[in-house]
Amino acid sequence: MTGGLEGYDAVAEANAQKSVLAIHWSRICERLKAEVGEVEYRTWLRQITVGPVEEDEITLYLPTRFLRDWVRGQYGDRLGTLWNAEVPAIRRVELQVARPGAAPATPPTDGAEAPATLAAAREEAAPRPAAPAPVAEEPRHAEVRSDLAAPLDPRFTFDTFVVGKPNEFAYACARRVAERPSSPGFNPLFLYGGVGLGKTHLMHAIGAELLREGRVSVAYMSAEKFMYRFIAAIRSQSTMEFKEQLRSVDVLMIDDLQFLIGKDNTQEEFFHTFNALVDAGRQIVVSADKSPSDLSGLEDRLRTRLGCGMVADIHATTFELRISILEAKASASGVVVPAKVLEFLAHKITSNVRELEGALNRLIAHANLFGRPVTLEATQDVLHDILKAHDRRVTIEEIQRKVAEHWNIRLTDMSSARRARAVARPRQVAMYLAKQLTSRSLPEIGRKFGNRDHTTVMHAVTRVTELMEQDPAFAEDVELLRRMLES
Ligand code: ADP
Ligand code: MG
């Protein structure tokens, strides 16, 4: 029998006999008490209860999320080492909140709870990987440093990221860093762009890829969490440990750096960590909503260093990219979503991918729930509220500009008296679209087109409608313009 199997049997036995675990645990507690002192022990560690062992992992429970995070951050590694020393087959410690959903207890230090509750909802929802394997002498192996970082969302990989013009550069840089971290010129990698355009997705993808390749330790956390951890470390006078932990990772990723604006102490700490890591040849990946030079409120020296590696922006999505993303997500869901519906969504929801995804998910959930096919009508119905929020007002000026551009005529011809077909037809289309897309009355529209009479506008509407029925190519042109104006 191999050592590993013996170890496994020992675990199985221990699992069966809770009392055995209790004896181990009381020994561990004695050691912890001796190491950290009675007060620390009573404040943090006494509240731990021992849960089940599964394979090589033991679950420990804490009554609140705050305590759980704290204990994980401060004692995660140590608990792992001590358990491993007691029961060699136990190689990982999973810390969980005992009663999920229970109200968090009053934190022991005033105000210390606040940053914990600010942590991203996704972090809570995602499954927590266990604390890293404890044995210190072991060579470094691939791990998410869950003791100091948030877990990676398994859905956010390079495979599920849809590449298009607006994000291809950022994507290429992210891939490059995942393939060869710490290459000169790519360190730090600074990703920036608006909300919901895929920054976090790309960072998690880098992490997932590095872990798949093995042999690196990766820590990903939001800047907010970074600050929370830093403040907690100051409170417990363990900043040295915190710094050491941070500086022991191969790849440090800090998301939403703009959060550190105005938080001078945390910025300072980040700056030092940053320098120490880069000097030691480690990779840093940072995201923010603006470029380093536009992040006013960030210390100059930090801004400068952030801009020293590779700065890659993610632009707003284009219609084509939105369609590709929707196609990818729809086909992954297994629900048939007609192209017409995808186009409709891509036109209507242009602000960011998160909302687009949310709308599609709702449609898919609806289709699954009621077993009905997805149609354009159903879409308008199910997404009624979302679509309303995205309905934006189109102005007559915008319509005139777009139409003039489309047929390559001068904007002034929209209100000129010229009657040549080449200008009169586009003018009629613009009037038609103004009637369709705005709530202006016929006389109001007439006034905007060189003080024309409302009967002229009426005539234009009838004429364009007729032409669209007769001439599919013309109809397509007008439809295209309408969709462009609506998006
Ligand atoms: P950010 O961090 O920039 O605010 P996220 O990375 O959280 O945005 O992206 C928001 C959502 O949109 C996520 O669910 C993400 O998977 C999805 N998403 C964004 N861009 C893409 C893309 N190019 N391909 C696939 N999904 C994307
Ligand atoms: Mg993000």
UniProtKB/TrEMBL annotation:
User: Per its record, how is this protein called by name?
Assistant: Chromosomal replication initiator protein DnaA
Q: Where is this region: Domain I, interacts with DnaA modulators?
A: 1-126
Q: Which gene encodes it?
A: dnaA
* Nucleotide-binding recorded as keyword: yes
- In residue numbers, the region (Domain IV, binds dsDNA) covers 368-487
GO cellular component terms listed in the entry, alphabetical order: cytoplasm; plasma membrane
Give GO BP annotations, semicolon-separated: DNA replication initiation; regulation of DNA replication
Q: What is its main location?
A: cytoplasm
Source organism, top-level taxon: Bacteria
